[in-house]
Amino acid sequence: SYQEPVLVSSTDSVGTKLKVAFKVGRHDTVGFDIVSHCGNDIVVQGAEPLFFLDYIGISKVEPAAIEGIVTGLAAGCREIGCALIGGEIAELSDIYTLGEYDLVGTIVGAVEKADVITGEKITPGDQLIGLGSAGLHTNGFSLVRRILFDRCGYDVDTYIPDLSATVGEALLVSHKSYVRSILELRKVCEIKGIAHITGGGLPANVLRILPDGCLADIRKRTWEIPPIFPFLQAKGDVEETEMYRVFNMGVGMVVVLAPDTVDAALASLNASGESTFLIGEVVAGEKGVQGVGS
Q: Strand 193-196 vs strand 251-257: parallel, antiparallel, or unpaired?
């Protein structure tokens, strides 16, 4: 059905969130995570996922762990409508610690050349819509582990009343996929820019989609912040600016739209089950992001 297709790809890993999965002994959630992360990375350019491949490097193959990972990978691919066409399992006992592994994924998608979302059409006056995150997603886990395991001495089975969950349950909440919601939104209105909020938080990820002369003015406290973030900030005595630089702080994706398309966009996103928030606007000024992490 494509007339002039452009292929868009992404390769990424789950990072040190795997260390939590090892402690808990649960492996399906990280499989889902890597597909969601990669899928979100290509849909920001408007690409529809086509296929996904995985790489698992492990000290010694453990069938239960591999089964859990692949179960999560398959669920993630079903979620975004792409094929899981294969992968590689490498048994490398000289590299990986017994009982641990690394998980990497590659996704390939396609979009019409005329429909690629680049951010170059963003202008002052455009509105910023934040899509709520499910929690930590897959970023900042080195800091999280230092705070909760090293500083606080918690175990993954420690129940935290403030989170209504054990530490392990709270940390393994899956990376939310926005692929289907964004593809539906594209049918309703023109999307000028999209930022997937991963490492670097709102400041770094919104910045990369802005053209010269555009300043993103983000207004704090215009969205719901999941309890995991203030809990980590208090337990780790982390400065607020650092929180916004490391974590998504409750906004997993930012969509930039012309003002006259906001109502239709919100209706579409809400119909897709997203939590949506008007978190700011684009103003004239030196290219940058203000209001968070500064």
A: antiparallel
The pTM of the full predicted model, rounded to 2 decimals, is 0.95
CB under 8 Å to 233, separation ≥6 — which residues? 240, 243
| Secondary structure, 3-state, 3-24 | CCEEEEEEEEECCCHHHHHHHH
Q: How far apart are CA 159 and CA 144, in angstroms?
A: 16
Q: How far apart are CA 71 and CA 268, in angstroms?
A: 30
DSSP secondary structure string for all residues of 116-151: ---STT--TT-EEEEEEP-SSTTS-HHHHHIIIIII
Q: From CA 216, how far away is CA 293, in angstroms rounded? A: 12
Query: Could you tell me whether strands 165-166 and 193-196 are parallel, antiparallel, or unpaired per DSSP bridges?
Result: unpaired
Q: What number of residues does the chain have?
A: 294
Helices (H) and strands (E) in the chain, counts: 10, 12
pLDDT digits (tens, 9 = 90+) for 133-175: 999 999 999 999 999 999 999 999 999 999 999 999 999 999 9
Token digits for 40?
A: 């979100």
Alpha-carbon gap, residue 11 to 157, rounded angstroms: 32
- What pLDDT, on a 0 to 100 scale, did the predictor assign at position 200? 95
Across-strand partners of 8? 109
